[in-house]
Amino acid sequence: MNVTLRGETGTRPLTGILVDTGATYTALPPALLEQVGAFKASFIMDVELADGRKVPASVYYAAIAIDGREGPAIVLAFEGAKEVIGVQTLESLGLKPNPDTGKLEPTRPKGVAYFYLLCRQKP
Questions:
Q1: Which residue range forms the structural domain that includes residue 74?
Q2: Of 41, 73, 99, 106, which one is least surrounded by beta carbons within 10 A?
Q3: Helix or strand (DSSP H, E) at 32
Q4: C-alpha angle with apex 49: 47 to 50, nearest 5 degrees?
C-alpha cells in the first residue's frame, strides 16, 4: 500500500502505517504535519484513545493519497500518536478494507465524490 501525505509546502510518503477501522480520524505526529505544511485549525479537541485516556489533539487538514486515490483528510495530531489511517480518510478516498485479503478495495470510482439527493415535496 502506497500512502502519501501532502500539505501546502510538500509531500511525504508514509511507510508502515496501519489502517485502523476502529479509528474515526487519521492520527499522525505533529512534526510530520508541520513538515508538509498541513493547515492547522485554530482549536484543540480532546481525543479518547483505545485505552480510555483522553489527550488534547491539534486538528489539521491535509491531502492523503493511497494507491493513486487522493482526497482531503482531517488529521488529529498529538505527541506520541501512533500513525494510523482512520475510516474518515478511507471514506474520503472511496476505500474499504477486505478482511479476507487484508487489502483495501474501492467502494466507488476514483476521484473526489460529492453526492446529494434532491428531494421534492408534493404541495
A1: 3-106
A2: 99
A3: helix 30-36
A4: 150
Residue at 64 is within a domain: yes
User: What's the one-letter identity of residue 87?
Assistant: V
Q: Are strands 18-19 and 84-85 parallel, antiparallel or unpaired?
A: parallel
* CATH number of the domain residue 95 falls in: 2.40.70.10
Mean pLDDT for back-to-back runs of 10 residues, the chain (123 residues): 95 95 94 97 93 94 95 94 95 94 90 61 56
114 in a domain, yes or no?
Answer: no
State the pLDDT at residue 63.
Answer: 97
H-helix or E-strand containing 58? strand 54-66
Provide the grid cell at 10.
510538500
- Of 78, 107, 83, the closest CA to residue 95 belongs to 107
Can you give the pLDDT at residue 113? 62
